[in-house]
Amino acid sequence: MGTSPPASTHLDDGFFNGLSRSMLDVGSAETLPPACYTDAAFYEFEKEALFNHEWLCVGRVDWVKAQGDYFTTTIIGEPIIVTRNRSDEIRAMSAVCQHRAMLVAEGRGNTRGFVCPYHHWVYSLNGDLVNAPAMERTCDFDKGSVQLPTFKVEIWLGFIFINFDAEAPALAPRLTAVETAIANFDLANAEGLTPPMTGQFAWNWKVMFENNNDGYHANKLHRGPLHDFIPSELCSFPEAGEGDAGFLRYNGTTHADASFNPTQKAVLPVFPKLTDEDRNRATFANVPPTLSLVMTSDMVIYLILRPTGPETMEQDTGILVAPGAMESPGFAERL
C-alpha cells in the first residue's frame, strides 16, 4: 500500500531488522518480531495498511437467505450491517445512523428497513434514508442526500467478503490457486448451521493463521485419539504465487476419510465430488486476514476472524457439510 510501519518506542532498528529477516526465503526466514503481536502502534498500522484495503470475510450467503434478512458485525471498530435487499442483492453498509451516530441495527433478523432508536430515522435495505420525522421543517434538508455508507461486496464460494476501499481490485482472481485446490468440496453449495459459535480470544489475530498453517505441533500437542490420524511428517506446503490472497497446507492422513472425532473416521456423508487424493488428506486453506478453513472429507470448519486489539480477537466458528447431510439420521449427535 506504500505505507510504512509507524514510529514507536518499541519499533526500533532491531524491530525493522527482524521484520526484514521474516521476509527471507522460507529456508532462512525467522518469525515476526514480538511487537507485531503486541504493539498498539503496529496494530494501528495494520488497520490502515491492511484491514482498510483488503477483502474481509464477514459471513456466509446462507446467513441472509431471504429478502430482508440481515446480520451485523464489527470489524476494526466499524459496525456493519449485511443484508439481502428487495432485488436479491447482498449489500453491506455502516450500522451507524448519519444523524446522531446511534446504531440502527444489532444482532440478526429480518426487517423491511433499519430504524434508528433515537429519532426514528428509517433506512432502506439499500441504506437510503426513507423517513426522517419532522425533518421537512428543517431548511434545506434533502432526505435523498442521506445514506448509510456502503461497502464493496464480493461472494467467493458462498462466503461474503467486504472491502472498505472502493477502489480495491476483485478478490477472486487472487484466489485462483486456492479455489482450484478446494474445488471438489463445492463450498458454494455446502450447507451449514446458522448462526455460528462466536468466541473471544486473548491473542493476536495472526496467531490463529500461523497455528492453522503449522503442522509441526500436531504430533505432540494433539497426541491422542482425535488427531493421531494426521501426523506432522505428512505435511506439505504448496508455494503461494506472487499476489495470491490465500495459501494452503495439506496434511496426509493415515487412512481415507479421516475426521476430527473419537472414531477418526467420517461420521457424516462425504462431499460427493472429492477425489481419492482429497479423501486421504486434510486441507487447510487460509485467506488472511479474516478466513481460515479446516477441511476433511465429511466436514469443513470455517473460522472468521476479527481483531479487537493488538492482543485480542473475536472469532465465528462454523461448520459446512455436503448438501443433504443435515437431513441424515443422527446429524446433531454426530457433530
Query: How far is the first residue's CA from the last residue's CA?
Result: 42 Å
> What's the architecture of the largest domain in CATH terms?
Alpha-Beta Complex
Residues in helices, as a percent range: 10-25%
According to CATH, the homologous superfamily of the largest domain is Naphthalene 1,2-dioxygenase Alpha Subunit, Chain A, domain 1
Overall 3D form = globular
The number of strands is 18
Distinct helical segment count: 8
Structure description:
The chain folds into three domains: 13-51, no CATH class; 57-163, Rieske Iron-sulfur Protein, CATH 2.102.10.10; 172-334, Alpha-Beta Complex (Naphthalene 1,2-dioxygenase Alpha Subunit, Chain A, domain 1). It is globular and about 75 Å long. The two termini are 42 Å apart. The protein has helices at 13-22, 35-38, 40-51, 176-181, 205-212, 218-221, 276-279, 331-334; strands spanning 56-60, 69-75, 78-84, 90-94, 108-110, 114-115, 122-123, 129-131, 150-156, 159-163, 191-192, 197-201, 235-236, 247-252, 281-287, 291-296, 299-309, 312-321. The model has no long low-confidence stretch (mean pLDDT 94). The protein is α+β, with helices and mostly antiparallel strands and 335 residues long. Helices cover 16% and strands 28% of the residues. Strands 11, 12, 13, 14, 15, 16, 17 and 18 form an eight-stranded antiparallel beta sheet that branches. The protein has a seven-stranded antiparallel beta sheet with strand order 1-10-9-4-3-2-5, with no helix packed on it. A three-stranded antiparallel beta sheet has the order 6-7-8, with no helix packed on it. It contains eight helices and 18 strands. Strand 3 (78-84) and strand 4 form a beta hairpin. The longest helix has 12 residues, at 40-51.
